[in-house]
């Protein structure tokens, strides 16, 4: 045996004649781990958020519009708590997991809106009772509450100006709806309140439309697609 071969044996190195490569004693002791399959991204939480917001908004707006002569909107409390509130907030969390700051913020914020609104209507919270029957003060307080939500909606509208026309229309009319309903609370004018209710039906159905468009787009074999008026940058 050549001195080179002896040196290799002393160093603990063997030569693989077939592969023509030099390997150490432990070359095959730890084989490489199998490749991991790519984790699928989280589902689109916007669909859940849009349907939750839209359905709850439609119901409350119809009550505000005095549909079928309804003047007490408290039946919407259940929807506000579990659909507009909990379900929509969940959609926002999913959107945050998808790294979407805008949609995550929108659905979480409006989810908390519905939860806070339901708490006003729930007798057990005692919020309305603290005004001790002073309808004017309660109306002013709710008016301020609604105007602030109008301002928040305008902030989201500014960001949405470069997204799609459907979303712009929903947020613009929603901001106007909050403002009109706030004015109705300040003035106690039932006609203005009904106008706010009629206006509110539009963004409600608009949100459902966008939700359906997103749901169809997520389906690998949709029966049809709905246009959203995407703005080209």
Automatic annotation (TrEMBL):
Gene Ontology terms, MF aspect: acetate transmembrane transporter activity
UniProt keyword Transmembrane present: yes
Record protein name field: Gpr1 family protein
Keywords: Membrane, Transmembrane, Transmembrane helix
TM region positions: 43-63, 75-94, 114-131, 138-159, 165-184, 196-218
Subcellular compartments: Membrane
Membrane topology value: Multi-pass membrane protein
Cellular-component GO terms for this entry: plasma membrane
UniProt record similarity statement: Belongs to the acetate uptake transporter (AceTr) (TC 2.A.96) family.
Xref: NCBIfam families: AceTr_1
Pfam families for the chain: Gpr1_Fun34_YaaH
